[in-house]
UniProtKB/TrEMBL annotation:
<dbReference type="InterPro" id="IPR007627">
    <property type="entry name" value="RNA_pol_sigma70_r2"/>
</dbReference>
<dbReference type="InterPro" id="IPR013324">
    <property type="entry name" value="RNA_pol_sigma_r3/r4-like"/>
</dbReference>
<keyword id="KW-0805">Transcription regulation</keyword>
<feature type="domain" description="RNA polymerase sigma-70 region 2">
    <location>
        <begin position="26"/>
        <end position="93"/>
    </location>
</feature>
<dbReference type="Pfam" id="PF04542">
    <property type="entry name" value="Sigma70_r2"/>
</dbReference>
<dbReference type="InterPro" id="IPR014284">
    <property type="entry name" value="RNA_pol_sigma-70_dom"/>
</dbReference>
<comment type="similarity">
    <text>Belongs to the sigma-70 factor family. ECF subfamily.</text>
</comment>
<protein>
    <submittedName>
        <fullName>Sigma-70 family RNA polymerase sigma factor</fullName>
    </submittedName>
</protein>
<dbReference type="InterPro" id="IPR013325">
    <property type="entry name" value="RNA_pol_sigma_r2"/>
</dbReference>
<keyword id="KW-0238">DNA-binding</keyword>
<dbReference type="InterPro" id="IPR039425">
    <property type="entry name" value="RNA_pol_sigma-70-like"/>
</dbReference>
<feature type="domain" description="RNA polymerase sigma-70 region 4">
    <location>
        <begin position="125"/>
        <end position="173"/>
    </location>
</feature>
<dbReference type="InterPro" id="IPR007630">
    <property type="entry name" value="RNA_pol_sigma70_r4"/>
</dbReference>
<dbReference type="InterPro" id="IPR036388">
    <property type="entry name" value="WH-like_DNA-bd_sf"/>
</dbReference>
<dbReference type="Pfam" id="PF04545">
    <property type="entry name" value="Sigma70_r4"/>
</dbReference>
<keyword id="KW-0804">Transcription</keyword>
<keyword id="KW-0731">Sigma factor</keyword>
Length: 182
């Protein structure tokens, strides 16, 4: 584990070592904030770490200019990270996603067959419900409607909607248990 320099450490004497020391100080001061910034926009820790790494690589390339500039380095770092995030979003939006890529070698790799069968069992169980019970299950679970909104959309009182959902889930549970036991 490398030892991070502290702020009051004297800089090393050689130019290369001084640049390394300066970059290590920049990293210690700003990396955590940059990572949080990038992760908030990507939603993915790995991609956020890549953005931060590329930001500090660009800072290393521009280090003499950054150290001589009177403007705050933090602002420059966040601008670079912001541009990298924009570039990544743009390139992802124009890159087509092919369904065949996920099944490149084996069509049912990673439990795909089991997932397909589980879906089939669930669809069959939903078909066996009455239309009123199926509507409330679909509205609340698959469409994510709150109970009062689902009741309003279906034109029933909230108590009736709750009762239908209760009985529908009980029936679904019994059907799924019997289907999985077979």
């Amino acid at each position: 584990m490398p030892i991070e320099p502290r702020r009051n450490d004297p800089p090393p004497t050689t130019d290369g070592a001084a640049a390394d020391h300066a970059l290590a100080l920049l990293y210690a001061d700003h990396a955590k904030a940059l990572l949080g910034f990038a992760e908030r926009f990507t939603g993915d820790r790995g991609r956020a770490e890549d953005i931060v790494q590329e930001t500090f690589l660009r800072a290393w390339r521009q280090l003499p200019r950054l150290l001589d500039d009177d403007r705050p380095v933090r602002h420059w770092l966040f601008q670079v990270a912001r541009r990298l995030l924009i570039d990544a979003a743009r390139s992802a939006s124009v890159r087509p996603q092919f369904a065949a890529d996920s099944y490149a070698q084996e069509p049912f790799a990673d439990g795909g067959f089991e997932q397909l069968m589980d879906r089939r069992v669930l669809v069959d169980a939903l078909r066996d419900l009455s239309p009123q019970h199926r509507q409330i299950v679909v509205a609340t679970f698959f469409l994510g409607c709150p109970m009062h909104v689902a009741a309003e959309q279906l034109g029933v009182p909230p108590g009736t909607a709750r009762s239908r959902l209760h009985y529908a889930l009980g029936r679904l549970r019994r059907q799924l248990e019997s289907a999985l036991a077979a």
